[in-house]
Amino acid sequence: MFEKVLVANRGEIALRIIRACQELGVSTVAIYSDADSEALHVRHADESVNIGPPPAAKSYLNIQAILDAAEQSGAEAVHPGYGFLAENAAFAAACKEAGLTFIGPLASAIERMGDKAVARTLAVEADVPVVPGSEALASTEEIMKSAAEVGYPVMVKAATGGGGRGIRVAEDEERLRASVRVAKQEAEAAFGDGSLYLEKLLLQPRHVEVQVIGDREGNIVHLYERECSMQRRRQKVLEEAPSPGISPGTREQMAEAAVRLARESGYTNAGTVEFLVDKDENFYFIEMNTRVQVEHPITEMITGVDLVKEQVRVASGEPLSIEQEDVVPKGWAMEFRINAEDPDQDFMPWPGEISFLELPGGPGVRVDSALYQGYRIPPFYDSLIGKLIVWGLTREEAIDRARRALREYKIEGVKTTIPLHLRLLDDEAFASGNYHTGYLEELLGD
Ligand code: ADP
Ligand code: ADP
Ligand code: MG
């Protein structure tokens, strides 16, 4: 096991990782920008290093500054969390070069899966079904030709995209030409790479993803699935596990497919294999996320496995502490993403000072956040400020508990997405478990 780990992130996920390290007896180094000197992750870590000015490009995305912080503090390993550099193969490689263990898959695996068009090819090789579509396409003419083959409507996607960006839907040829231009520009601006690929647009699919984790000895286990169909602008809003929309047979098949892909690609550490599922429960691979995911706690709640501790364990060379037989899901878990945004004003970001805070508690309630009363949410980063996670023996109990806990959750001084979650908990489609990836936008009239 490591003696000291540097946490290359901020916010609730940095705190989550620090907590895992503390339980493992590993000391922690936080990094922070000038905007984050008062942040909770800095207070909880054993040591902290300032890595630069507020803009992420100058701090949390500044590879050299982070490597210097690791050297200065004597950390042996780096946990990247999610977002920022978590899926940056060059960062994983630079860590290795500097003699640091990157707590994640090998740089080569990140690179392969980071190109979603390449990942599709790997899935096909592993006998995992993919959405009908194309490989990476070089020219607009190639894209038009491929769309004609696949059949409209289609979706153009940035090969290195993430966070729901660089994706456009097109119903016909004319609109596709326009979409390609916009998607390319968006992808170049956001990801520095304008390559696109194409998929058939699935109608009203569900998004169901499977958690896997592998160690260096070649053991790979899955931890079943998460339902992530409640989305806005292709970003998850709330998640639940298990998925209310698949039968036990499909559940097993999807889990096996995810393990097959991980095995065939020599995958280590935690990863998520994302699928879309149609009305007939056919499932199609869309991408693999090579990192811990925002919604990992719901898997922890139903399996009892601490995913972040497992990540640290396997990165240090230890075997997984669990075998497949040990993973026996129990009950139902839900996660509600609490963003500092105003749901009544088109989800406008709402940074500012938390003037009053009262956290929920009681049975089956978990609070992952980096908030405290008096904290000032800086305007420079993602608007996710916390997550409420609940567990119940049944889905009904989880819903009742979520409603109770979200009512207890008092945040004043900034607008948050809590009112939206309370509304969804009383929504009939949500209550029935029968909702798809377009449902929330329909409901909001977006
Ligand atoms: P998850 O499935 O874990 O929710 P997301 O795609 O929503 O994954 O991304 C997790 C977090 O990382 C979100 O806060 C999102 O805004 C951020 N993120 C995703 N992709 C990128 C990216 N390419 N660059 C920076 N941040 C990103
Ligand atoms: P990202 O890398 O931004 O997370 P994904 O490929 O995972 O992109 O897709 C994000 C979301 O976009 C999915 O959860 C789903 O809602 C929607 N989506 C992606 N591909 C398709 C498709 N072929 N048909 C319909 N919806 C899709
Ligand atoms: Mg995705």
Your description of this structure?
The protein has 446 residues and is α+β, with helices and mostly antiparallel strands. It folds into three domains: 4-103, Rossmann fold, CATH 3.40.50; 132-200, ATP-grasp fold, A domain (Dna Ligase, domain 1, 2-Layer Sandwich), CATH 3.30.1490; 206-444, D-amino Acid Aminotransferase, Chain A, domain 1. The chain is built from 15 helices and 22 strands. The protein has helices at residues 11-24, 40-44, 63-73, 89-97, 107-114, 116-125, 140-150, 173-191, 248-264, 296-303, 307-315, 395-408, 418-425, 428-432, 439-444, and strands at residues 4-7, 27-33, 47-52, 77-79, 101-102, 154-158, 167-170, 196-200, 206-214, 220-232, 235-241, 269-277, 283-289, 332-339, 341-342, 348-349, 352-353, 356-358, 365-369, 376-377, 384-392, 410-412. Helix 4 (89-97) packs antiparallel against helix 5 and helix 12 (395-408) runs antiparallel to helix 13 (418-425). The longest helix has 19 residues, at 173-191. The protein is globular and about 55 Å long. The mean pLDDT is 97. Residues 274, 287 line the site of magnesium ion (MG).
